[in-house]
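The freezer alarm interrupted the setup, so I double-checked each line after restarting. Inputs confirmed:
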Amino acid sequence: MKEALTSLLDQAMKALIAKEQVPEVPDLVPQIDHTKDPSHGDLATNLAMVLAKKARMAPRDLAAMIIDALPANDFVAKTEIAGPGFINFFLNQSSHVEVIRSILANGSEFGNSNKGGGRRAQVEFVSANPTGPLHVGHGRGAAIGDSLARLLVATGWSVHREFYYNDAGQQIVNLARSVQARAQGLTPEDSDWPEDGYRGTYITDLATAYQNKITVSAADRTITALGDIDNLDAIRDFAVAWLRREQDLDLKAFGVRFDEYFLESALYESGEVNDTVSALESAGHTYEQEGALWLRTSDFGDDKDRVMRKKDGEYTYFVPDVAYHLNKWQRGFERVINEQGADHHSTITRVRAGLQGLGKDIPAGWPEYVLHQMVTVMRDGAEVKLSKRAGSYVTLRDLIEWVGRDATRFFLAARSASSQLTFDIDLALAQSNENPVFYIQYAHARVCSVKRKALTEGADWTADAGLDHLNTLTTAEELALALLLAKFPEVVANAAQRLEPHDIANYLREVAAAFHGLYNAHKLVDADNKSQSLARISLAEATRQVIENGLNLLGVSAPESM
RNA sequence: CCGCUCGUAGCACAACCGGAUAGUGCAACGGCCUUCUAAGCCGUAGGUUGCAGGUUCGAAUCCUGCCGGGCGGGCCA
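Predicted 3D structure, all chains:
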């Protein structure tokens, strides 16, 4: 509909330019928007206002001229000039309801588009190190990252989901020592407890499992414990597998899956880390100073240079990150989106600088980043600190157990990643029935209930049958809902473009509200008015389909009854 | 001290990246179930969009400066 209107305005402008009534402005980008207020029509454009200065005319006079130049068409019922110079378009009845036909025909595909054209994109998210259970921050990353992946799929990208983790660093050593200490009967209160050791109770479970020679399988590895508490390497391997399995269980319960688990250690084993450093050295972007090797990141927008190789010969953390992203580039991903916590923002400049320094013609803005701000967890009116080492943080599993998978996913994905989020456990517990996700799911379940009711009137009381009676949909509630449903493809495309899954959540709330309003204002299934009922069933089914498709983008279920 | 980021109703958050009267949920108050699911609907109340300037037809949105929160700025990851 928007496209048709754009075309109309385009033709009008061409005609006016041909008659030299307005000047040609090459980079003019007028907006055509859905209106907030129905009295402003269905769609509106600011064309006359953005053109007014160049045309040296009053916006309202210009608007009148544009309206006169609009070609004849069969979907605009009325145009109006309003406010400072908006042109408001009122669509006719059939233009409003035509979308129902399209939704029913396209089903679960409705809303999808093909901007990606099958090109390859990667979303890397969660990427938690296997040193403890997933916490709430990982949960936010999982919810947002998974939705991003779904949005990219819906807009035509071929998406690869990747989980990157370090299975060999100092933190893993701390983990192994902690488990060993537990197996030896020590507790974090003992003076012999390892410095920087992990204190959570899961360490105790791990030690017990190791001593019982348990076999564990994670998505990317399987291992049987040796039970020998003096063998630190064996403890480490088992601990990593055990925690990977724990994380897998959480992610599975959360409805999140990955195509690949990528190990940082692989980059060292393959020599890619050394190769990356050599490449940067021979490209002339490095220098030695005070016994360390530095990268001139300041040549690429950083505020100062960074150490790559420490005095002791070890690499700093961002060096494998650069090697990793070179690896991603060589795998052929046109887009890579990294979803991480905002505490990693300083790595963005370094990784991009390293990639630029390699001289591989990698675009300056590659990879892309979506950073989510911190999740603050409140309980009993006090903040619960998120700290792996303290072992007292709230886990993703806790949240799922308390408020359910759907509510947790929705809550964590329904807010802009750039805003800090307060997850009040007491509130979520006390008001679990009032959670916004239920409002949307309830609308979906209601439609299903309406359809069940309709079938009791007769086997031919179906949504498809209603397509022949769409002209009976004339009330304000019906037309407004239909227009809102027509926006869905645009909302999906826009959310994917902006990498903002929460747009979907907000949109769905609007759709649910419009449907609940219609439901209360009008009887949908009325035995005495069959044609109108059938049309309303079509509209309800179209609404259901859009809600299902939208919830699916968020990884939230669409129940048929509640 | 420097960088990034956020600041919107009592609380938690939106506002289609510059549009018309700043919205939604919770909390508060008043109504609506002999009728398709009341986990719903309708109504009332609640705001100097942190502060001060600037840009323009038009600013919560862009720019500058201040104030406040968060995260970074380690040869820690």
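Quick read of the result. Residues 175 and 248 of chain A are 18 Å apart (CA to CA).
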